[in-house]
Prior knowledge:
The structure holds 2 protein chains of 2 kinds.
Chain A: H1 5-14, H2 21-38, H3 73-77
Helix pairs in contact in A: 1-2
Chain B: H1 8-17, H2 22-40, E1 43-46, H3 48-63, E2 75-79, H4 106-113, E3 117-122, H5 156-163, E4 169-174, H6 180-186, E5 189-192, E6 212-217, H7 220-230, E7 260-264, H8 274-289, E8 293-297, H9 305-320, H10 344-356, H11 359-372, H12 378-398, E9 404-408, H13 424-428, H14 435-440, E10 443-451, E11 457-464, H15 469-482
Parallel strand pairs in B: 2-3, 2-4, 7-8, 7-9
Antiparallel strand pairs in B: 1-3, 4-6, 5-6, 5-10, 9-11, 10-11
Amino acid sequence: MSLSRQDVAKVGMLARLALSESDLDVMTTEMSKIVGFVSLLAEVDTASVEPLAHPLDSQNVFRDDLPQPSLTTSEALQSAPRHDGECFLVPAVLGESGAA
Amino acid sequence: MQPAELSAVDLVTAVRQGDLSAVHCTEAFLRRIEALDGSINAFLKVDREGALASAARIDERRRAGGPIGPLAGLPIAVKDALCTANLPTTCGSKMLQGFRPPYDADTVRRLREADAVIVGKTNMDEFAMGGSNENSAFGPVKNPWDLSRAPGGSSGGSAACVAADMAPVAIGSDTGGSIRQPAGLCGITGLKPTYGRVSRRGLVAFASSLDQIGPMARSAADCALVLETIAGHDPGDSTSLCDEVPRYTEMLEQPLTGVRIGRVRDHYAEGLDPEVARGVEEAFAVFTAAGATIHDVELPHAKYGVATYYLIAPCEASSNLARYDGAHYGHRSSQRTGDGFESPLLEMYCRSRAEGFGPEVKRRIMLGTYALSAGYYDAYYAKALKVRRLIRQDYLDAFRHVDLIGGPVSATPAFRLGEKTGDPLAMYLVDLYTVATNLAGVGGISFPCGFTRSGLPVGFQLQGPALAEPLLLRATDRFQRLTDWHLRRPKAIA
């Protein structure tokens, strides 16, 4: 199984990881090798097997919808790279400018 | 006797009886950390002041006749994957350098309420991804038995600090073997409880359907003591089990007569080091002498465990680690070129993550993103989930015939630092004997069963059905009453 550089670049954007040209080279080689290895699973007959996403046979767990203490705004913001005391600050979502 | 020579059980007894003060006990371990950790690098943060202050409060309360908790005065090191409100929590990553969690992990809260003394946070592979500790952004941990060798991973700092008597107990987390493999390579005892037995609230998430916190200590008896405190339902983790927490420490006495232990022939395939194979066989003989019976069992899909794991874990990781966006906490890149990015925000995300994550974490995020992406989901992720069910079914079938399954915890003793760093796939294969436990959601324990000629510990693993912790601990305790491998100390750092 071999991945192309374009495949890897696309996955990098989906994963929100900036990859340099040399990162792309290394990642393409390594991912091809690992994907080749995990492709071993293709030989297992799973035609009548249901997927198992979680080891517990648990159902959804509900609690009463009551207000409870939670993080304060300042606690929630305490490790933020930038904030204004009320909100997280980020660079411009659209367009070119944005100083945060 | 020096505190460092006592078991955790003896330490809490000595503190309770007033034979040893919590401060004296804490100081003794802090002294060892100061003397030894420069060459081992097991700690990312040592909280000398906080530990001594909490020890002093415990002593004061005890002297005043007040109630003290079941772990009163017991120094404990906590893997840096667990959030601590008063201490930095980096998860071994530059991404979280300087991060201060706003709350304690449930395990940390329980330890504090039990009057344990948290001495510091231990080094680990970045975001718990790795089997050697070499993926830590803050330098590798050295194996106390041979400083040129890896301690295993990802809970390598926790394993090494117990092996070097820098703490009598450490907390680890195990997603595919990260407690059991380093315990095996460092000659200590490490328990991965059943999935859900210990709350994951405040454990930095790697692969949420596999992650589990557990104790690492000298002996099964010490692990039992700590598990009693950290196990139990937590409304903050809806996957934590509601089942009552047994008194593990009171269930160790019963003999092993009639206990059936399975032996998997496939465990002895090519690649198993002959000295490890010999240690494992001798361990089976000890269990036989203790009254257990050994039976061949099969886990036909075990050979697909590593491939299944290296799809499911990266898929869950790619989703969990999406939270590191440079906006809410963690590293934010200041670099803005505008080249090839649709918006300044997108560039900030991509550059922050590229700068904050190390190579192995990026590799797994990329693999997971690929395996979950349109066109590949069915072939990879969905396929792995189906094989996961077959792997779990193998365990359910095997546990109809045996009570436990025994075997090696890793194929080789501790390998040299740098030996596998150039080949990610070779590093993945060190998880051969441990990943299936997590995929099945059952429990496992590893402990020393011998040493190689060159003096490296050999680990034995027992796996049990869901909630079989009492039997896992009892069998290991029985083994440790009949052998003294777990009492040996590394010469290099004595």
